[in-house]
Write a structure and sequence with these properties.
The complex is a heterodimer of chains A (664) and B (361).
Chain A lengths: L7 E9 L3 H11 L3 E3 L6 H4 L11 H17 L20 H40 L6 E7 L5 H9 L4 E4 L6 E6 L3 H10 L3 E2 L3 H39 L1 H21 L3 E2 L3 E9 L3 H11 L4 E7 L9 E2 L8 H10 L10 H15 L3 H20 L10 H21 L15 H6 L11 H29 L3 H6 L4 H19 L11 H25 L7 H29 L1 H23 L2 H39 L5 E2 L14
Parallel strand pairs in A: 10-11
Antiparallel strand pairs in A: 1-8, 1-9, 2-8, 3-5, 3-6, 4-5, 7-8
Helix pairs in contact in A: 1-9, 3-4, 3-8, 4-7, 10-11, 11-13, 11-20, 11-21, 12-13, 15-19, 15-20, 15-21, 17-18, 18-19, 20-21
Chain B lengths: L2 H23 L2 H7 L3 H9 L4 H10 L2 H22 L2 H31 L22 H5 L4 H7 L6 H5 L3 H7 L2 H20 L3 H29 L4 H7 L4 H4 L2 H8 L7 H8 L14 H27 L8 H25 L4 H7 L2
The chains are: A alpha+beta (664), B mainly alpha (361).
């Protein structure tokens, strides 16, 4: 893992046109180049170049890929990933043949679905009658027992089925039971008359008819259900039967899409192909070799160092281990760091987990969170088609970390589902909150907890400042490094403020310290802060910036100075005090657990246990959520605002693992 | 702006705005149109908020079952919004839900009419009806199984529709079909709606009234076009169909339009009087006779629907602490579900993308 963003180099290459296909394959296989449009070259160079339309439109490829994906999903088969892609199989897409395959499969599926619809309608008709029998709504049914004296009973059966009814023979007799809906009686009566229906006078049989037909109805319903399910499975089986072909088509389309995407960056002269793109420095040699090999040595490659290009144009790649993925997502969600600056992921991980642990310290509850995370991960892994629920895939990964953090801090504070099963390694948080922290304890009251979280906040803010100083040093922004509110000057003023604040607290909130160095340090810092505006203008003019009259420059400097002072004094103070929320939530957590324990002790036996369990569930859900959100907020506002400008452009190489545009 | 309005609408507005935001980002409709068959269209909704509709297709292969799921979603949406409001605002939302109930009632009556009056077997089709309670206590099962008009009335005895339905006799239905009854049910809903609007607080009343009068004007215009021009209905019959509110019903232009001979009426003039710009719309290609009239009617209805959409979208940018946002959301949600329904139907019957686009209103 790099502590900083990965160093990058800009490649510009010229290859012979006949080798460009091979070059595309190589670059696609490597998947490390973030291409730059050649139209960014100056107009003089552009005149000599031409750009070409692809022979197959990328949107046509995408549309067809979507068709394949829809068919696979219809068969409940996961859509293939980049793992099925192999650049060696990159061939011209046979769109007509693909279309025929897809059309045929779609046609067959639609016929099956039509049959399934008919089965479903049969199921619905039978269910309606079953429901009326079950709910004792015989008045909606028309049940008769009688004889068919004209025509074939099979014909009558078919005709009655057209009304959704049933006609079943009574065993060992020539009698039949007819079951239809009473609302159809206007049509059924003439039909039965046509077949010479003679109603039976056997009262006992009339009474038994319901149970006899009920059985038949059940059988028919079961058969219709089975039929419907069988078709559903047949649909899956039909798609599964074509899976290999569908995967092959998908892979071909995707490879061609990617290849076309790469080609869209290419420019051409009569015989050569030009392209350019950013590559991580550690991959430069591999890329150069690949292009050389693919073009059989007939190529010209030039490298441009990132420092020769404006920083804002260099794409930013950060490499973090997979295990840090949840925290990398938090960083990405905020923005992209500037090129050459610190990769914040590891710091976010440490800060986030410490904050969460301090707010949600409990071994038992942490274990539950971890198990939810692990089970969720297992569930999604087992069922890749499962849609993200309230606990999404990303959240399951984070929950495992949060659970571990809560367990570690729970052990430090001696909390196990709110019970003190083992002695606290550090201090008993709940006892402190309850007001009996004990004399030997490091922290004895809630003020101690508040102080602890403020000190934690100071560490976080200073870490942010130090990271900012490192970034500014690497960017060679020495003026900002020294005289900015987040530079060394800001650090000194913050330190001085802290010294004064702690001394004020130590004096019992009575007086500020009167050390002789304080006033000069503050005065000199404020003067330097004022001078910064003029220095900044001077440097800008020296670098060719616009000149302004002295009045305007002075006005700007004064305004900037005034705003900076406000930001330093109020910003640092509020940022530091903001960390008291960590104590606030921690105290709320301990208090809630204490309350539920007391409530459960008031109820005997099962009731008490239930209150204790429900209390724990409530705390896990509510406190877990608030602690997670507050930790994120502290990271984004208090920590990132010190060093993370978010001005970077993300590195997006084109390769087999590139995410399709519609999923971005 | 009183704090009451903020507490009443603050939460629901945040929630609905988020939903509207997602609705706008969504490419479901565009992707659905683009799908080349029903199977692929279902693939599109599989990963969207309509996934329950796709599940219904997997389970049954039945388009009408999918429509039933969509209807259930729509009803749940109204109930959810009403739950977050209170007092007269919640009553209004419930009353709006009543339109779905009336449409469900009309569908049930049509099915009943087909079965009992026209003696056509309806088989399983009754199972496609929404039979849970929407708003009023209606015994849907008793209604669809009624063997006489009296039983139909009895199944509605505890609902507000009983008197309207009971005012019609079986003979009336035999003679004129269901159209007059359906029109009367719609009119009844509008009458109650206007009464309900009067119970709202001033700011809500103003917003709701302006939106409903617009709805009524558009509806009346459609009646003038559909029945006054396309069906050549006589002036008195068309007048009876018009709702007595808004600018259109009582205008001299409408009077003059209806005074003309039915075959000489020009729908464009009356539409352009209220919503200029209809002439700029493309005329339907080379269609003739009846087909041309159908396409022209569709075009006019599409044009009016566009105007309505624009007005509802403008409403989103106005005072957030009124009922206006909820009304706009209902419109947008209904519009989207109607489109989903229409496209799925279009795909089922194998229509081309361009044709479906053309008829989507």
């Amino acid at each position: 893992m790099n502590l900083f963003t990965r160093p990058m180099k800009l490649l510009t290459a010229v290859v012979l046109e006949q080798t460009s296909d091979a070059v595309v394959r190589s670059l696609l296989g490597l998947g490390v180049m973030d291409f730059v449009h050649m139209n960014k070259l100056d107009s003089g160079q552009m005149e000599k170049l031409s750009f070409r339309q692809s022979s197959v439109s990328r949107s046509a490829l995408q549309d067809m890929r979507h068709r394949v994906e829809a068919l696979l999903k219809q068969g409940h088969i996961p859509v293939p990933t980049s793992e099925v892609l192999n650049v060696q199989n990159l061939e011209k897409p046979q769109l007509e043949a693909f279309k025929k395959t897809l059309d045929d499969l779609t046609g067959n599926l639609l016929s099956l679905k039509e049959k399934q619809k008919e089965s479903n309608q049969m199921v619905m008709g039978l269910e309606e009658m079953q429901r009326y029998i079950k709910e004792d709504k015989g008045e909606y049914l028309d049940l008769r027992v009688g004889q068919v004296t004209k025509g074939r009973s099979e014909d009558l059966k078919d005709r009655i089925a057209a009304f959704g009814g049933l006609l079943e023979s009574v065993e060992n007799t020539d009698l039949w039971i007819s079951l239809t809906l009473r609302r159809d009686v206007g049509q059924v009566d003439p039909l039965l008359d046509k077949f010479g229906w003679m109603e039976s006078s056997d009262v006992q049989l009339q009474q038994q008819a319901v149970s006899m037909i009920k059985e038949q109805l059940k059988k028919e319903h079961q058969a219709a259900l089975t039929d419907r399910e069988k078709i559903e499975k047949a649909v899956d089986a039909m798609v599964l039967g074509q899976q290999t072909q569908l995967f092959a088509i998908w892979a071909n389309l995707r490879l061609n899409e990617l290849s076309d995407q790469i080609r869209s960056y290419f420019a051409y002269t009569r015989n050569t192909t030009l392209f350019s793109g950013w590559v991580p420095t550690d991959q430069a040699e591999v890329v150069e070799q690949a292009i050389n090999q693919a073009s059989e040595g007939q190529c010209v490659i030039e490298w441009t160092e990132a420092r020769q290009v404006p920083r804002g144009e260099v794409p930013v790649a950060v490499s973090s281990p997979k295990m840090l993925a949840p925290f990398q997502r938090m960083v990405n969600n905020y923005s992209t760091p500037e090129y050459g600056t610190v990769n914040p992921t590891i710091f976010v991980m440490i800060a986030y987990l410490c904050m969460f642990g301090l707010m949600f310290a409990d071994v038992g509850q942490g274990f539950v969170l971890m198990m939810v995370g692990l089970l969720g991960k297992w569930g999604y892994k087992k069922n890749p088609l499962k849609k993200d629920g309230m606990i999404s895939r990303n959240l399951t990964e984070l929950l495992v970390y949060l659970g571990l953090s809560a367990m570690v801090f729970g052990a430090l504070f001696g909390s196990y589902f709110g019970l003190n099963l083992f002695p606290a390694i550090w201090f008993n948080y709940e006892a402190v909150v309850a007001g009996h922290g004990g004399n030997g304890s490091l922290i004895t009251d809630v003020y101690g907890i508040l102080g602890l979280t403020i000190k934690f906040g100071i560490i976080i803010i200073y870490t942010g400042l130090v990271l900012n100083w490192i970034n500014l040093f690497r960017k060679k922004s020495y003026l900002q490094l020294t005289l900015d509110k987040n530079g060394l000057l800001g650090g000194i003023l913050f330190g001085t403020g802290l010294y004064m604040g702690f001394a004020f607290v130590e004096s019992g909130y009575r007086s500020f310290p009167s050390d002789p160095w304080i006033a000069p340090v503050i005065t000199i810092s404020l003067v330097l802060l004022f001078v910064r505006g003029f220095l900044s203008y001077y440097i800008s003019v020296k670098q060719g910036g616009e000149r302004h009259d002295l009045g305007a420059v002075t006005m700007d400097a004064v305004m900037e100075w005034f705003v900076d002072i406000l930001e330093i004094f109020t910003g640092y103070l509020s940022n530091t005090l903001s960390f008291m929320r960590v104590a606030g939530l921690g105290i709320a957590h301990a208090s809630l657990m204490q309350s539920f324990k007391e409530l459960s002790s008031l109820a005997d036996g099962f009731g008490g246990v239930m209150i204790f369990i429900l209390g724990n569930i409530l705390v896990i859900v509510l406190e877990g959520l608030s602690s997670g959100i507050q930790s994120l907020r502290l990271n984004y506002y208090e920590f990132f605002s010190r060093y993370f400008t978010g001005k970077g452009v993300a590195y997006q190489p084109v390769g087999l693992k590139s995410v399709p545009s519609e999923q971005r | 702006m009183s704090s009451d309005r903020v507490s009443l609408y603050g939460f629901i507005n945040a929630k609905l705005r988020a939903k509207i935001g997602l609705m706008r980002q969504s490419k479901v409709i565009e992707n659905l149109l683009h799908a080349s068959s029903l199977v692929e269209a279902v693939g599109v909704i599989r990963d969207s908020k309509y996934h329950a509709v796709a599940d219904a297709y997997d389970r049954t292969g039945d388009l009408q079952q999918m429509e039933l799921v969509l209807l259930g979603m729509e009803i749940s949406m109204y109930k959810e919004v009403a739950r977050y409001l209170e007092g007269s605002s919640a009553d209004l939302i419930n009353h709006l839900l009543g339109k779905i109930e009336i449409d469900n009632l009309k569908n049930t009556l049509r099915l009943w009419y087909s079965s009992i009056m026209r003696q056509r077997p309806i088989r399983h089709r009754s199972e496609y009806l929404f039979k849970d309670t929407i708003l009023s206590p209606i015994d849907w099962t008793a209604l669809i199984n009624a063997t006489s008009w009296e039983v139909v009335g009895a199944s509605l005895k505890d609902s507000p529709y009983h008197d309207t339905v009971a005012a019609f006799t079986e003979q009336d239905l035999q003679q004129s079909g269901l159209f007059p009854l359906e029109t009367e049910l719609d009119r009844m809903w509008y009458v109650h709606l206007m009464e309900c609007v009067k119970t709202l607080k001033k700011a809500d009343e103003d917003v709701a009234t302006s939106m409903l009068l617009l709805e009524i004007d558009l509806r009346n215009l459609m009646m003038l076009v559909r029945y006054g021009w396309y069906h050549h209905m006589d002036a008195e019959a068309v007048k009876r169909l018009l709702l007595p509110w808004g600018k259109v019903a009582s205008s001299q232009e409408s009077e003059a339009y209806l005074r003309q001979n039915a075959s000489e009426r020009d729908p464009h003039s009356i539409i352009n009087r209220y919503y200029p710009g209809l002439e700029d719309q493309q005329h339907s290609g080379s269609a003739h006779g009846d087909e041309a009239s159908v396409l022209e009617t569709l075009k006019i209805e599409g044009y009016l629907a566009e105007r309505r959409k624009a007005i509802y979208q403008r409403m989103l940018a106005q005072d957030p602490f009124t009922i206006g946002l909820s009304l706009s959301y209902f419109f947008l949600f209904k519009e989207e579900t109607s489109m989903v329904k229409a496209i799925l139907n279009g795909k089922y019957y194998g229509y081309e993308e361009a044709y479906i686009r053309g008829v989507l209103v």
